[in-house]
């Protein structure tokens, strides 16, 4: 390989590793890397581009009402309990192949990984049962991996043979073989929205990790060639990718969201798949469909997607944190899962800051959901059945969160909620609580009730808030939270304005 070729490949690597953040403000420091060990950074709110299409804006309002999604990473990799896709990238082998005892050389490893489709046979997959579990958990929409970076399609794509319905996959004769079709329909029947996760990178197709280029067998997360120098090869990949996106949007019913991963596939890195043109085409028959082109910024990142983290402050724009219920996005053997208490505290923290939570569960290779995950999900749902009014359909409410007390409000601003969180069940539960509010809010409060019982409770106005005395409940441990429903004078009475 010549020095010139090496320099061009190194430049391509750097373009992906250090993508300029188009969503960053002029004076904001841009992070050096967008993806570290498979975890994406997220775009700065200052550069958010608000949609102009009224149907997209209406769908964004719907999105911000939902608050809770079930994200699912599932594919042949679940058989081994390894990280999804990333171990295929030789440049990411240092962190992604930990614990894998296959052949040491990258070529043999990739051959073995890509061959996992030949043994993937999730015969216990029951989409109706998954949807029922999600509904019991209080889930409002599904984010499902139709295709991860490894290129394996969980739908019957006519543009790839590497798919769940392929003849070399033993599951292809099963009645639920077209997994996306059956899963999406089952969740819709339960009234839940659908977000189709789709990786813009595809490490299986020969138009992305193409052979015969200077990189040889050593691969990274980007293409094996410089797109600007091989436009015909790149156009093959663009056509392939756009066709698969259209296929999902045309053949699999109503999609509320298309959720695009692989943020390094973007114009800033010289990998322009012209996503905008295909999204605008799809919106002709899927009006208002949201597009989450994560980490790329611009008009097709309709909401921001922090990963495995929660912003410290409200972002002021639509956003969704994707966070694992266990320790991994993909299924991991003997994984441990967050308790209902931990998940509810996480959800409340996110909702108080104006975001949604996409809680991720990796299904087992046999098609079932892990028992530990189901237990946590159902525990979360039991809490939401009682207190969901303080979560769903709410917006940010100052002071957002102070100490262990978080705040939300209904959109008409006449109903506020204070959620007193107890992350530790051994916490001593106080008899009286100060709920901090601004002076105008304090003066407008007319009633405080407990949503679980409907019982009104006494309160006194203080300079810095209202002092409430909740009813004593005989409990051995602290509750997950005490929730207070706070009613204000009607807005029209306070300001003379009409209620929205």
Question: DSSP strand (E) fraction?
Answer: 15-25%
Q: Overall 3D geometry?
A: globular
- Strand tally is 18
Biggest β-sheet: count, sense, barrel?
Answer: 7 strands, parallel
| Tally of individual helices | 12
Class from helix and strand fractions: alpha/beta
What does the secondary structure layout of this molecule look like, with pairings?
Elements: H1 3-17, E1 35-36, E2 39-40, H2 54-66, E3 68-72, H3 93-96, H4 106-114, H5 127-136, E4 141-147, H6 179-189, E5 193-199, H7 231-251, E6 257-261, H8 275-282, E7 290-293, E8 320-324, H9 340-352, E9 356-360, H10 371-387, E10 394-402, E11 405-410, E12 415-421, E13 433-436, H11 439-444, E14 445-450, E15 455-456, E16 459-462, E17 465-468, E18 481-488, H12 491-495
What is the compact description of this entry?
The protein has helices spanning 3-17, 54-66, 93-96, 106-114, 127-136, 179-189, 231-251, 275-282, 340-352, 371-387, 439-444, 491-495; strands at residues 35-36, 39-40, 68-72, 141-147, 193-199, 257-261, 290-293, 320-324, 356-360, 394-402, 405-410, 415-421, 433-436, 445-450, 455-456, 459-462, 465-468, 481-488.
């Amino acid at each position: 390989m010549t020095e010139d070729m090496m320099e061009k490949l190194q430049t391509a690597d750097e373009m992906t590793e250090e993508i300029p953040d188009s969503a960053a403000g002029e004076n904001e420091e841009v992070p050096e890397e967008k993806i570290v060990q498979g975890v994406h950074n997220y775009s700065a709110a200052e550069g958010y581009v608000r949609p102009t299409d009224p149907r997209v804006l209406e769908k964004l309002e719907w999105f911000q009402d939902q608050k809770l999604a079930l994200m699912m990473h599932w594919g042949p990799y679940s058989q081994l309990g390894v990280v999804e896709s990333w171990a295929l990238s030789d440049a990411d082998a240092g962190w992604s192949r930990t614990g894998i005892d296959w052949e040491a050389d990258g070529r043999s490893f990739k051959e073995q990984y890509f061959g996992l489709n030949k043994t993937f046979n999730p015969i216990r997959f029951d989409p109706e049962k998954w949807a029922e579990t999600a509904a019991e958990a209080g889930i409002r929409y599904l984010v499902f991996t139709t295709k991860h970076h490894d290129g394996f399609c969980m739908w019957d794509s006519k543009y790839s043979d590497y798919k769940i319905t392929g003849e070399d996959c033993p599951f292809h004769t099963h009645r639920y073989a077209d997994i996306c079709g059956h899963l999406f329909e089952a969740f819709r029947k339960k009234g839940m929205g659908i977000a189709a996760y789709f990786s813009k990178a595809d490490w299986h197709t020969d138009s992305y990790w193409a052979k015969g280029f200077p990189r040889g067998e050593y691969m990274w997360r980007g293409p094996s060639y410089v797109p600007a120098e091989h436009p015909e090869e790149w156009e093959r990949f663009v056509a392939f990718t756009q066709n698969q996106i259209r296929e999902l949007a045309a053949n699999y019913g109503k999609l509320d969201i298309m959720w695009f991963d692989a943020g390094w596939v973007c114009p800033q890195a010289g990998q322009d798949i012209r996503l905008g043109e295909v999204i605008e085409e799809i919106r002709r028959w899927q009006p208002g469909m949201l597009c989450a082109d994560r980490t790329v910024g611009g008009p097709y990142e309709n909401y921001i997607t922090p990963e495995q983290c929660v912003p410290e402050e409200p972002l002021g724009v639509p956003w969704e944190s994707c966070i694992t219920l266990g320790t991994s996005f993909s299924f991991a053997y003997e994984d441990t899962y967050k308790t209902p208490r931990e998940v509810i505290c996480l959800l409340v923290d996110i909702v108080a800051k104006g975001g949604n939570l996409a809680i991720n569960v990796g299904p087992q290779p046999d098609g079932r959901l892990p028992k530990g995950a189901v237990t946590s999900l159902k525990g979360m749902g039991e809490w939401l059945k009682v207190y969901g009014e303080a979560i769903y359909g709410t917006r940010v409410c100052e002071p957002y969160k102070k100490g262990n007390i978080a705040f939300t409000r209904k959109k008409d601003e006449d109903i506020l909620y204070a959620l007193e969180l107890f992350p530790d069940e051994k916490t001593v539960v106080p008899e009286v609580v100060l709920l901090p509010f601004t002076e105008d809010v304090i003066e407008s409060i007319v009633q405080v009730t407990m949503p679980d019982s409907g019982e009104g409770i006494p309160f006194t106005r203080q300079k810095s808030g209202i002092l409430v005395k909740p009813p004593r409940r005989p409990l051995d441990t602290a509750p997950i939270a005490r929730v207070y429903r706070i009613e204000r004078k009607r807005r029209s009475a306070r300001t003379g304005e009409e209620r929205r």
